[in-house]
Amino acid sequence: MELPMLVFCTLLMGLSLWKLNSLVQKYKTYIELYTSDKVIRFGKFHPLWGHLHLLVPLFKFQILVDKGMRETGRKVSCYWMSFLYPILGVCHPDTVKILLKSSTPKNKQTGGGYFTLLPWLGDGLLISDGKKWERNRRLLTPAFHFDILKTYVPIYNKVFDIFLDEVEVATSGGKSTEIHHRVGLATLDTLLRCALSYEDNVQEQGSKHPYVNAVRILTNLSVKRIMEPWLHPDILYRLSSSGRTFFKYAKFVHEFDEKVIKERKQALAADKSVITKRRLDFLDILLTARDEQGEGLTDREVRDEVDTFLFEGHDTTASSLSWAIYSLSKNLKEQQKVYEEVTKVLGDRTQVEWSDIKELSRLALFLKESMRMYSPVPSVGRITTEEIDLDGLKVPANMQIYVLIHALNNREDIWGDPETFRPDRFIDEPEKDPYSYVPFSAGSRNCIGQHFALDEQKVALAKLVQRFKVLPDPNHEPELVFELVMRSNNGIRIKLEKR
Q: Are strands 468-472 and 177-178 parallel, antiparallel or unpaired?
């Protein structure tokens, strides 16, 4: 064998041995994590699927976490995403705090919790990190100033007047109606009007509206892909029927946004005073924001933020509001307290005003407890960039970790009786660790639109209880499912009785 070939083979063998050793060390670390007495483990490990067979449907995952918390009191869970790698979950204030106070980025690499959203939502505030996230968060913060938010209250009233008219017809004669779909239409209608000043009879068209249909399909396919590791590589996903459908609807959503953005840019270019002639909206702020160097957002950044806000702002709020309405139906004594407060604050008025919102303290407690029992976003993910210590567990870099918000909100050792709906717990037990309740996440990456969402829900619920008594459907029980947001497999049904 000639010397060059011998050198090449030696180098190749050395590289292979180095890679093999690296892989062995990595899996040794993974196994040490999984076998630690610090973690909650899940059932039998399948040599191919890991624990995936225990996690579909995703509600089974919550049952396993709840069982593990009760039996062990541990603060970290661990399961395997197929045989490839383990994923950790933190479900106690002590461990949640460490993760949310750190600067660990979102897990958007292939196989991470957010990578399936990238082709749709792009690198907006939900997913971006580092200097880009810091800059864009700073530029977008003025869009959620109280002076802007209070101009949206008349829109909330208008949208939910339409909603109430629709559900009154649907529940006539004592019939029950599925509420989550209708609420989703209303919250999307709100977002389009508030963010883009765009009106298109979304609620009247229902599921026939192409944007509504596209968002529903994209959400379902994004979750489905996470649980199908063989479709994680983009090249394979694009060849699959699910992938072709996903990119078809992503293209539609992008074209819809780009058309609205282009028309607004043209209007601003033709007459810069157009903003002072009407209400300032989210898109105006996106297009006119400038950083310290005088640079604004690129066209792609504007589209990514619009996509992100329309999705996050309507889907998570729809989940929260739907479960709050369900909670009204299941807790009639608490509903009566809310009704009495609304009657006292509004009197004979049917339109909620900005000044009324802060007076609805009982309603705020009710909504807080509903979001504890039914977390709108069941979990948020991160990926470590360096070794961190979680309750004595040494976690290496490049590990996926989820903050299990719903599990955190249902720990018996923190909440005592987590299955009891009791809004007064937030008055009676005010000394809890602030990281024991994080419906909008926490730390620097908390939800930028949380006040927008809470104000909208308070207006909607106040108008609802003022006009109707909300009653349960005795023949229906929701089947919880954990996707990007908390849903019910069989819908959420309620009845209404005119006051």
A: unpaired
Give the pLDDT band of residue 230 (cuts 50, 70, 90). confident
Q: Which helix (H) or strand (E) holds 400?
A: strand 400-404
Is 395:389 a contact under the CB 8 Å cutoff? yes
Residues 158-193 pLDDT 10s? 999 999 999 999 999 999 999 999 999 999 999 999
| DSSP string for residues in 118-187 | HHHH-SSTTT--HHHHHHHHHHHGGGGSHHHHGGGHHHHHHHHHHHHHHHHHHTGGG--EE-HHHHHHHH
b/e for 90-106, b at 16 or more Cβ within 10 A?
bbbbebbbbbbebebbb
What is the distance between the alpha carbons of residues 484 and 116, in angstroms, rounded to a whole number?
11
Four-residue CA torsion sign, 120, 125, 128, 131: positive
The distance of Cα 204 from the centroid of its chain, to the nearest Å, equals 26
The model's pLDDT over 376-424, given as tens digits with 9 standing for 90+, comes to 998 888 988 888 998 888 888 888 888 989 889 988 888 988 999 999 9
Distance CA 426, CA 121 (A): 35
Angle at 178 between CA 426 and CA 318, to 5 degrees: 50
Is residue 365 within 8 Å of 429, Cβ to Cβ?
no
| Cis peptide bond N-terminal to 57, omega within 30 | yes
Are residues 246 and 228 in contact, defined by beta-carbon separation less than 8 angstroms? no
Q: What is the C-alpha separation between 187 and 185, in angstroms, rounded?
A: 6
Q: Calculate the CA 372 to chain-centre distance.
A: 14
What span, in angstroms and rounded, lies between the C-alpha atoms of 425 and 416?
10
